[in-house]
Design goal:
Elements lengths: L1 H10 L4 E2 L4 E4 H13 L6 E8 L8 E7 L4 E3 L1 E2 L4 E3 L4 H5 L3 E6 L5 E8 L10 H22 L11 E8 L10 E4 L2 E5 L17 E8 L2
Antiparallel strand pairs: 1-2, 2-8, 3-7, 3-9, 4-5, 4-8, 6-7, 10-12, 10-13, 11-12
Helix pairs in contact: 2-4
Length: about 210
């Protein structure tokens, strides 16, 4: 049950796509972006990626736009198919639609990812990882309200800690850290909250995501 709900929360939405265009209501994005904006998150963010339906590889994007009955504006996106959507109440009220033209993929869909693009090697202390863990936990809980509400909070997937991925292989020695090649998973005990001990890693930190129990 937990793994099925995680798919609902983080990977799949009701947004669809066609061979020529991906089209989705802006409202679905706005509701989630607004949760982040209202929270006090230094690191945690919710990001949106356009991925191929079966392989989950990024859909290469040719162009994108945000359309209302009165206006059309360009949609910014990255080379790895992240949609850089604005937080704009007027677009929400005007029932805007997000339109993306993939280069070649037959079917594309949205992947919603809780992560941090602002967590770097400079933040590799136990205290900052504790903060990141609790921001992820809080954001996941807040976003779940968009899907299932408080009555089904008992169904939320369990977050075990933080997963960090690096540009090269990493080995760290700590009873709460488990590394395999470029990926390290951190259990986050309460004792780390005010601990400034540093994890000395020279290779670049490239991603920070929640560690979710399967």
């Amino acid at each position: 049950m937990k793994s099925k709900l995680l798919s609902l929360l983080l990977l799949a939405t009701s947004f669809g796509g066609t061979a020529e265009e991906f089209v989705a209501s802006y409202e679905g994005f706005y509701d989630r972006l607004k949760v982040v904006q209202k929270g006090e998150f230094e690191f945690a963010r919710v990001n949106f990626y356009l991925v191929e339906g079966e392989s989950k590889r990024p859909c290469k994007i040719e162009s994108g736009k945000i359309v209302t009955e009165q206006t059309t504006q360009p949609l910014q996106f990255t080379s790895n198919a992240q949609l850089m959507l604005p937080v704009n109440e007027k677009l929400d009220k005007d029932k805007a639609v997000v339109v993306v033209t993939p280069i070649s993929a037959k079917y594309c869909e949205i992947k919603i990812q809780i992560e941090s693009a602002h967590f770097t090697n400079a933040e590799l202390t136990k205290g900052k990882i504790y903060q990141l863990h609790h921001e992820f936990e809080s954001l996941l809980s807040d976003l779940s309200g968009v899907f299932v509400g408080k009555l089904l909070a008992f169904m939320l997937p369990e977050q075990k800690g933080v997963t960090l991925e690096f540009a090269g292989d990493v080995t760290l020695t700590d009873e709460h850290v488990f590394c395999e090649k470029k990926r390290c998973r951190f259990e986050v005990p309460k004792s780390w909250e005010n601990d400034n001990s540093t994890f000395n890693v020279l290779t670049k930190l490239v991603s920070a995501k929640p560690w979710i129990a399967k």
